[in-house]
Each structure stands twice: as structure tokens, then as C-alpha cells.
Amino acid sequence: MTCKKSGDIKYQINGKKICFTLLAGGNKKDLKLTKKEYNLPFKWKGKKYKNYIDAYRDNRNYDLAISWDKCDKESKKFNRGLKIGSNCTNITKKYSSWEDFDWLSKKNYAFFARYYDKVCKRVFYKYATITNKGKITEITWSTYKINIKSNIYKIKY
Q1: Looking at the domain assignment, is residue 112 inside a domain?
Q2: CA angle (38 as vertex; 136, 134 as ends), nearest 5
Q3: Domain assignment present for 79
């Protein structure tokens, strides 16, 4: 299959109608994506933070994921207007850096807003959990540690 634009694919097999959305594109540079993307006032381990990344700089040995699973003002404010219950195509409209839509454990996931922080050597990203009908049910912020040296390979031939 070769595609030049996104859209809904609808077909019928043996009387059963099937529909899915094909999203072409993504992985573009997001000029809005800076450390400020992760501004969020919260308290962790007794200390107040204004930014999710700053919390990791202070607590490098801990993992913390922040999730929204209901539509409220906070989830919309800190995720460029994305809200629970909206269509997943809104991700591609709000984040040019969306990476992929994966199928894992009977749920769809869209990853976006991936940001590498050189100070704590962690990758910060957002992802949305999506129903089979394309509705966003949860937005999560997460991170993983990256070891730059592990990405260097010597090829012998």
C-alpha cells in the first residue's frame, strides 16, 4: 500500500464492516517543543516543582509518570489543548513531532513530544492511549534514561 494522505479506510468482508484510520506523516521537527513543554506545577517527595524535567534532575534514580484519564482544564492546558474523548487525529494537528501509532496489549498508543534533556540524560515524551474507534482515553507523560555510549557500534567487515 502506498499512501500520500491520511484518512479513514472502510471496507466490508463477508457482511462485516471494518473501518480504520490511516495516518501518514509525523516525525517532523516540532519548533514549539522545548523544556517548557513540560511545565507543570506539582509536588513530589515533599518539594514543589514547576517543570516535570526539573523534578527528574533532582531525583534521577526514581521514575514518575503523570497521567490524565478524565477531561479537565489541567489536561487540556498542559497538553496543547488535547483532551480525553477527542479524536486521535487531534494529536497530529497539535504535535508535528508525533512518531507512531502502536498496537500493544489490545490498546493503541500514539507517542509525541519526545524531548532529550542533556543535563539528566533522559528522554521525556508524551503518549496517548486510544480506543479502536480512535478516541483518546488517557494522556501520559513518561521518561526513560538513555546511555549515549550504548548507541555507538563498531562494524567489522
Answers
A1: yes
A2: 10
A3: yes
Of 9-13, 40-44, 146-150, the poorest mean pLDDT is in 146-150
Beta-bridged to residue 135, according to DSSP, are: 87
Residue 67: count of CB within 10 angstroms of its CB: 12
What local confidence, expressed as pLDDT, does residue 156 receive?
55
Task: With CA atoms as reference, report the closest residue to 139 among 37, 61, 59, 36.
Answer: 37
pLDDT tens profile 103-135: 555 678 888 998 999 998 889 999 999 987 889
Residue 156 lies in a domain: no
Fill in the amino acid letter for 120: C
Confirm if 109 and 127 have CB atoms less than 8 A apart.
Answer: yes
Q: Are strands 16-22 and 107-117 parallel, antiparallel or unpaired?
A: unpaired
Compute the distance between CA of residue 110 and CA of residue 92 in angstroms, rounded to an integer: 10
Tell me: the pLDDT tens digits for 60-87? 878 888 999 987 788 899 999 999 998 8
Instruction: Return the closest-CA partner of residue 39 out of 55, 48, 51.
Output: 51
What is the tally of structural domains in the chain? 1
Question: Domain span at residue 79?
Answer: 7-148
